[in-house]
Amino acid sequence: MPAAEQNSEQSRLIGSNMPSRISYMNLVGNLSALIFVGGLGALYSLKLKHYLAPIYTKLLHASVGLLTITLGTVTIILAFYSEWFDFGEVLRYTNLVLVLIVMLFTILRPTLKVYFRLMERIENGN
Fold it and tell me: Is the pTM of this model over 0.90?
């Protein structure tokens, strides 16, 4: 592949002009890992119930979990557009669709739980 074609292909990749240490994929991946590690606070949920009602703890847990899963999925999608993924456009878009379908099926139930818990709290006025 001539150098001009290779440069034009790399310039269309998301964040490809950045060094690998500060690419968008790396930043989003580190953020999702940081939030995941922050979720270890759930180990202390018994102590937390003295300060916060369990319904709010569950709501917070589900919301942070959804955020973590979504950021992890965004990281995977960004990896498909990195310079390391060179399996062709058809496979890139096939993987993109598969990852999005899996993410939707994964977050559907927790999203509905968060929605219904919020509606219950709003209706009760608490």
Answer: no
Alpha carbon distance 16, 101 (integer Å): 26
Domain membership flag for residue 13 = no
pLDDT of 126 > 70? The answer is no
One-letter amino acid for residue 90 of the chain: V
- With CA atoms as reference, report the closest residue to 26 among 67, 106, 84: 84
Q: How confident is the model at residue 7 (pLDDT cuts 50, 70, 90)?
A: very low
What is the span of the domain harbouring residue 115? Answer: 21-124
**87 CB neighbour count, 10 Å cutoff:** 10
Give 50's pLDDT tier (boundaries 50, 70, 90). confident
Q: Which residues contact 100 (CB under 8 A, 6 or more apart)?
A: 73, 77
Contact assessment for residue 21 and residue 67, using Cβ atoms and an 8 Å cutoff: no
**Counted domains in the chain:** 1
